[in-house]
Amino acid sequence: MADEEKKPDPAPTEEAKPEEDKPATEKAKETATDVKDNVFSMFGGGAKKESKPEENDEENDRSGSAKAQAEKAKAEGGEGGDEEKAEEEEADVHFEPVVHLTEKVETKTNEEAEEQMFKMRAKLFKFDRESREWKERGTGDVRLLKHKENGKTRLVMRRDKTLKVCANHYVVPDMKLSPNVGSDRSWVWNAAADVSEGEPEAQTLAIRFANSENANLFKEAFIKAQQENEALFSKEE
């Protein structure tokens, strides 16, 4: 109808404002943001995540406390070591030995009242009647010892190192030295009362020297002791 009055259009609200009403700077900012997001999405990435300041602060606190504890423990350990060292230096206690090892202990061998008339290194053997063979008694110095009071001479031989007696008997007149199996450096004789084992016992003994010269020197000293003892034993009879 021509006569009807045209109603005016309602005024547009602020929400319905077209995009062209936005300022040009804001539009440019939004466009740049959209382009940046599109680039990250094209290469499989998303928006860059910002690190959380709270987590970083917590890690710093932990590392700082651990470092402080380590320094504290180190300081305490150093102080403790110094204290222990000081205690060791202070505890300087001196104890006197109960037994002085430098003191000599005299051992009696029953040879103190005897004079050594002959000494020579040799090896001694004993004939074993059960096995019918010679057995070694020991290696050492064979000696002829003369008693200072009664004048009697006995033969004594001790083993090296242990000094255990392996021959001990008087050199009586009825003993006879014989060459051992034709050797010029070994002698054999019978002892009626050898006491090297404690009780008197009859033994067949053999002695061997380094050479014939030593063997002859022993024979001479042995025969001389026999002659001296013969006179002494005959007086007792």
Automatic annotation (TrEMBL):
PROSITE patterns: RANBD1
Record field: compositional bias (Acidic residues): 79-91
GO cellular component: a single term: cytoplasm
Chain intervals with Basic and acidic residues compositional bias: 1-37, 61-77, 92-111
Top-level taxon in the UniProt lineage: Eukaryota
InterPro entries: PH-like_dom_sf, Ran_bind_dom, RanBP1-like, RanBP1_RanBD
BP GO annotations: nucleocytoplasmic transport
Record protein name field: RanBD1 domain-containing protein
UniProt lineage: Eukaryota, Fungi, Dikarya, Ascomycota, Pezizomycotina
